[in-house]
Amino acid sequence: MKVFVTVEESGVAKGIRRIVAVTGEEALKAQLLHRSLAAEIEKLHKLLLPSQQKPEQQQLLESELKRLSKELDAAVIGVYEKHQLRQVFDGIKRQHVEADKAAKALVAKQISEQVHSAIEQNPDQEAFVFRFDAAGKALAQMATYIKGLKNKAAYFISVDESAGRVAHQCVVGKPLVARGLKANEWAEAVSAVVGGKKGGKEESAQGSGSEIARADEAVRVAKDFVKSHLK
By residue range, what is the domain housing residue 198? Predict the structure, then answer.
């Protein structure tokens, strides 16, 4: 067992460095803390299940990464040991970030294909309603796509169970606005179901609510709204 542990090393002036070390009981505490942190960081590997990772696992991993990062920064342990743990921790964090980006890119690709396919297969249909799971930024991307079509309307409803939120966004082409389908009124009808706030104008609107259990009802309301307002 070490009789002392170097817990800090810093520069004081040119050519002069300050080293802080602890001995006895404090050194033992530093060693035990190092082992505890090493064990916790090792557990993070078990949460890295990229392609099939469940939302709750992702949320837990993100929470643990934030917590352990703070604990590691504040930990009074050996300088070299802290450096080693930080390297392992940063490696896990990089893997998580890369896996998260890949997963979101895949979701965005699948959503894009679904929307494009629906419109291509139903060229005469003027308004569409889509429901997705945790679509994220893909909602805005698809809204931009629909807006570029000029003469179509679409409502996108995204349910994120891990966050307990329902994000929704709609776009209506000017020709359809003139015929009675207005985005802000459309969003108001959906928001009345999923709760939360909404905002927008006649050609585009968006909102976010917490009634995730009523998402399917919101889809029905959005479709019924089209039938009763698009003349």
Answer: 123-229
